[in-house]
Amino acid sequence: EKQSLQKTNQSFEEFLSTLPRDYGWTPLFDCYLYQGCWYYPFFLRGVIAAQQHFEAQPTDIFLCSVPKSGTTWLKALAFAIVTRKKYSDLSSHPLLSTMPHECIPFLEVDVVSKEHANQTAGVPLLATHIPYHSLPKSIISGGCKIVYIFRDPKDAFVSLWHFMIRLAPKDATYISLEAALELFCKGVSYYGPYWDHVLSFWKASKEAPQRVLLLVYEEMRKDPLPSVKNLADFIGHPFSVEEENEGALQKIVDFCSFENLSDLDVNKKGNYRPGNSAGIENSAFFRMGKIGDWRSHLTPEMAKQLDKITREKFGGTDLPS
Ligand code: A3P
């Protein structure tokens, strides 16, 4: 068994060496272009395994996003929605002691074989950052529901820059904002190009709106109730009139708010993937949670540069540009 594992490792390394390669924003890893998307090797290995072996169940619900677009929030909300009957008493809720990422299996890391993790997790939710066009075929052919969250690329960029600095070893030279922007604009970023990722799900949502729901971070932050209600309906766990009258929807929105989750001990002091080179403190997933924090970091020229790409890429769509 050891030998076959080694063989797989070797062939993966060989395969990597055939792919376009660029700087991964951190001295820890380079990133590689596979099917139009930039991956770190750690994730790419899982993406390929998922493409080869993963068999989705039609009842699976996929929470999808490009990193730093609100994944943590979406996971918390979806998990709280589907488990709300079991944990009507919030004082024993798993999210009080488990960070949202650990409540939901991550396809390209936790669920890479035919061994289906959703039964063990007890909820039909899975998460992935894989762009739509590279998702394992069974997710599409199985008609699985897909929820996709995205946000203003300027805020996503600033969020990612901070995240990569948190991920870098303490003594490393951090990537400058300028260098990161240059890479981001040419598409080289964690699961980038950012815009192509969003477009892949946008197209899918136009083709199959009953199967693919888009959520906009800014809309949710300004007025979470309609989006969260919509999310619950879409994933087949609608709030009854009675529940709404009792404030169950508001309770979940408040419980999953940035203010509440970021203040929990588990999210302030815990660690995600400890011992792994991609491990990081849970607090790195709860930075500001603001709309427009880019204003504190980007010069007007930098913002213009990003907006120009957004207009070019999203022109002709109904995506915010
Ligand atoms: P900022 O870095 O702008 O603060 P992801 O979960 O995809 O990694 O995205 C992380 C971004 O979502 C971070 O943005 C983080 O602060 C924000 N975030 C995390 N939890 C949130 C929540 N419950 N509500 C709103 N935003 C949240």
Keywords:
321 residues; alpha/beta; 4-stranded parallel β-sheet; 17 helices; 12% strand; disordered N terminus; binds adenosine-3'-5'-diphosphate; Sulfotransferase_dom; sulfotransferase activity
SSE diagram, text form:
Layout: H1 2-17, E1 21-26, E2 29-34, E3 37-39, H2 41-53, E4 61-65, H3 71-82, H4 100-103, H5 107-110, H6 118-121, E5 125-128, H7 137-141, E6 145-150, H8 153-167, H9 177-185, H10 194-207, E7 212-216, H11 217-222, H12 224-234, H13 241-245, H14 248-255, H15 258-261, H16 265-269, E8 271-272, E9 280-281, H17 300-314
Parallel strand pairs: 4-5, 4-6, 6-7
Antiparallel strand pairs: 1-2, 2-3, 8-9
The structure holds adenosine-3'-5'-diphosphate (A3P).
The site of adenosine-3'-5'-diphosphate (A3P) has 22 residues, from helix 3, helix 8 and helix 15.
Question: What's a quick, concise take on this entry?
Answer:
The protein has helices spanning 2-17, 41-53, 71-82, 100-103, 107-110, 118-121, 137-141, 153-167, 177-185, 194-207, 217-222, 224-234, 241-245, 248-255, 258-261, 265-269, 300-314, and strands at 21-26, 29-34, 37-39, 61-65, 125-128, 145-150, 212-216, 271-272, 280-281.
